Amino acid sequence: MTFPVLFYCRLLVLMGICLTLTTVHAEDRLLESIQVDSSSREHSIVDIRLNQQLSVVAHSPLERGDLLRLKVRRTGRNSQIDEQPPVFESLPWTPTPTLPLYEITVDLEGSILLHFKRSVSYQRLPSTNSLHIRIKVLHPTRKTQLPETTHVQPVATSDDTLIPEQKIEEAEDPVLTGMMNEAKKAMLDKNYRRAIQLYTKVRLQSEHTHFGKQALEFLGLARERNKQFAHAKVVYEKFLKLYPKGDDAGRVRQRLSGILTARTEPKEKLKEGDSKKKTKVGVQWDTFGSFSQFYNRNESKFNQDQTRLNRSSLQNGLDLTSRLSFQEFQAGLRFSGTYNVNVETSDEDEQRISSFYLDLNHKNAEINMRIGRQSQSSGGILGRFDGFHLNFPVYDKIDLNLVAGYSVLSSKDIFVNTDQYFYGINADFGTYLDTWDFNVFFIEQRDHGLLDRRAVGGEVRFFEENKSFFSFFDYDIYHAELNTFLFTGQWIFADRTTVNLSYDYRTSPFLTTGNATQGQNVDSLDQLLQSFSKDQIKALAKDRTAISQTGSLSLSRPLSDNFQLNADFRMSTLSDTEASAGVAKTDGTGLEYSIASDLTGSNLLTDGDIYVIGARYNILQNSDALTLNLNVRYPVSRNLRINPRVRFNLRMNDDGTEVFGYQPSIRLTYRVIKGLQLEVEGGGDWLFQERNADALAAAALAGDNDDFDKTGGYFLIAGYRYSF
User: Following DSSP, what letter does each residue of 216-274 receive, concatenated?
Assistant: First the structure.
């Protein structure tokens, strides 16, 4: 079985086009890629893969809309998303009748927005780690029916005899009735894990009643549909032992017979029968993406100085996904990059390649391979790299992963960095008990031939419908130092109140032998070897590395269907670094605190509008800071949206001076025709910094008696995006 030659020809052409358009140097993207699981007839799971570790603390509207806003924050010490992204960040998607998603973008405050062609119902799911965001989008309602849950009196057993009065009381039990209805809804939604929990609970509370009988039958059905055939077999056999007669017993016997037949049928016979019925499957080719061009201009003026041009550039962006399916084979190409042309300054043109990889998959063997520039979120990999990742099953619920490649420090590094390479192995275990997943890893990295890092670690993931947590640790056995420990947990209560808790411990910067080059006027570790021994370099690396710790607690509570209150408390600290080899120590920060709250309203004046008013107060090492903001997204029409925003900042320094400023801005998006969208954003920035005594004296000598230094400026971003 081979892929058609035409596929490889097209693939080479596409890769050539990408290399021609891209040689890329701007700020790293938040968004990496989109993957969608539409195997269920009732819903699709949208998996948003990220380049930065983020956690979702709130979303709006709560359950339905054509625009879903996800409020996110970074894990670790730098929790705030960049306030002014230099360009509009976007990931395109091809909408379908069941999933009308056409684009995912990042707004002015770093929130992630999902755009749909029509209103949909959705649910935010627990994420497996902080580099994934998962959204369940319900498909249009269709008529689906489970077997009738008729009330049939159970057969009396030796240890229990029902009396009519008891049966009538239990039949009218509102708690059990509610649980059965909820379980049936879970079955219709194909949420078999939740259905199993509910049917088990009903069975335990009312084993020898008609509720218990129905729960036992549907428990077996839920186990079977969840592909837990051994569990289903045990449940069906127990049902037939307790209730050997009746129509329901006949149904159960048929299901049990189907399971036993499937488990005992000779494999050779199955293969032979399958080959006779096999129909030829043609090649399926799907290519989609977007091309964009944006002009970005930024000017500022300090006091009475001349206006300064900070930026004047034309950014060209290409985001491309191409996928091919041929019987049991799948292949895909993914590219994302930009090329910035500086049109009025002497700065060099800026370039970046964020992603450029080829996926190869064999469905039946469940073997997956990715080659090229990519990002990984597990196995101890430190983000983006040029290399390969191979995944394949070795046993039931155990997958092995092999990875090797060259580290990519920044996506502006468009050529492979052969000086720093790594290799590793890790294993995925699960899912166990429908809730637990695990990963363990070993990884080693070398820099200019020297051992840069040798680490072991793992992940623990627990997720249920209303609660989840993710924990990760990375221990460097070469440097004998804990590099990272991360815990994030979420609990969603019955009234839809959501509580998020996180703790983040990490070395800053991440501890590698390469940290020793800081402050040494060398470009690489091999140059440092001319002055220091390997043990001395290892000690220098630790001296240049601080410890960062961050804890946070956030709460999101719906006040009504249209209003939501969000609150967040964070505390963090950064340790000192040691002085050595001519490099001075750096002082830590001590404890710093942040308290924030915002009120979000949605669908107030029209469907799809969002209003956010918020405040944040920071208690920092040398100052306190207050930020107030108002952000509005309003759909003027189906094709036109406006997004006005204003922010006010006040910083109170410990020396008694103050700094305040305000930044108004507005963004407009207009969909001209299918696939073509115009986007314009403009705004101003005014900052007033109070002068201390020394600055006042220096200004007075120059004839300037003002109490403040004043900075003012504006920015403009305008362009188009074409999705295909």
Answer: HHHHHHHHHHTT-HHHHHHHHHHHHHH--SSHHHHHHHHHHHHHHHHHHS-HHHHHHHH
Instruction: Answer for the pair 702, 683: CB distance below 8 angstroms, yes or no.
Output: no
pTM as predicted: 0.71
Vertex 511: Cα angle to 506 and 514 (nearest 5): 155
- C-alpha distances in Å from residue 229, one per residue of 37, 258, 632: 23, 10, 51
Tell me the pLDDT tens digit for each residue of 296-318: 999 999 988 889 999 999 999 99
d(CA 52, CA 408): 14
In whole angstroms, how far apart are CA 206 and each of 154, 177, 184, 216, 376? 12, 11, 17, 11, 47
Gap between the Cα atoms of 505 and 210, Å rounded: 53
Secondary structure (DSSP) of 318-359: EEEEEEEEETTEEEEEEEEEEEEEESSSSPPPEEEEEEEEEE
The amino acid at residue 578 is: E
Residue type, 332: G
Length of the chain measured in residues: 724
Any idea which of 271-275, 314-318, 376-380 has the lowest mean pLDDT?
271-275
Determine which helix (DSSP H) or strand (DSSP E) holds 124, and give its type and residue range.
strand 112-125
> Are the CB atoms for 460 and 451 separated by under 8 Å?
no
Residue 299 CA to residue 288 CA, distance in Å, equals 36
Question: Would you tell me how many other CB atoms lie within 10 Å of the CB of residue 173?
Answer: 15
pLDDT tens digits, residue range 218-249? Answer: 998 988 888 888 888 888 888 888 888 877 88
Q: How far apart are CA 36 and CA 588, in angstroms?
A: 44
Q: Which of 204, 201, 216 is nearest to 246 (CA)?
A: 216
Question: DSSP secondary structure string, 267-313?
Answer: HHHHHHHHHHH--PPPPEEEEEEEEEEEEEEEEEEETTSPPEEEEEE
Provide the pLDDT confidence category of residue 192 given band limits of 50, 70 and 90: confident
Q: Which residue from 537, 472, 541 is spatially nearest to 509, judged by alpha carbons?
A: 541
Per-residue pLDDT for 569 more than 80? yes
Taking the C-alpha atoms of residue 317 and residue 321, their distance in angstroms, rounded to an integer, is 14
| Torsion, CA 511, CA 516, CA 521, CA 525, rounded to 10 | -100
Classified as helix, coil or strand, 438 is strand
Task: Please tell me the distance from the alpha carbon of residue 490 to that of residue 466, in angstroms, as a whole number.
Answer: 8
As a three-state string, the secondary structure of 53-71 is CEEEEEEECCCEEEEEEEE
Q: What is the pLDDT of residues 2-44, one digit of tens each?
A: 333 343 344 333 333 333 333 333 346 788 888 888 878 888 9
Beta carbons of 659 and 650 less than 8 angstroms apart: yes
Distance (Å, whole) CA 662 – CA 649: 6
Assess contact for 532 and 519: CB atoms under 8 A.
no
**What's the number of CA atoms in the CB half-sphere (13 Å) around residue 413?**
14
Q: Which of 626, 635, 513, 499 is nearest to 568 (CA)?
A: 499
Q: What is the mean pLDDT of residues 260-289?
A: 55
Q: Give CA–CA dist 180/171, Å, rounded.
A: 11
Write down the residue that tokens 């420990």 correspond to: 485
Give dist(CA 99, CA 35) in Å, integer: 12
- Are the beta carbons of 446 and 455 closer than 8 angstroms? no
Lowest mean pLDDT among 115-129, 160-174, 289-303, 674-688: 160-174
Rounded distance between C-alpha atoms, residue 193 and residue 347, angstroms? 57
Dist. CA 558–CA 544, nearest whole Å:
45
Which of 572, 566, 565 has its CA nearest to residue 547? Answer: 572
Strand ranges, E, within 345-497:
350-362, 367-376, 383-395, 398-407, 420-432, 436-447, 450-463, 467-476, 481-492
| Residue 580 DSSP one-character state | B
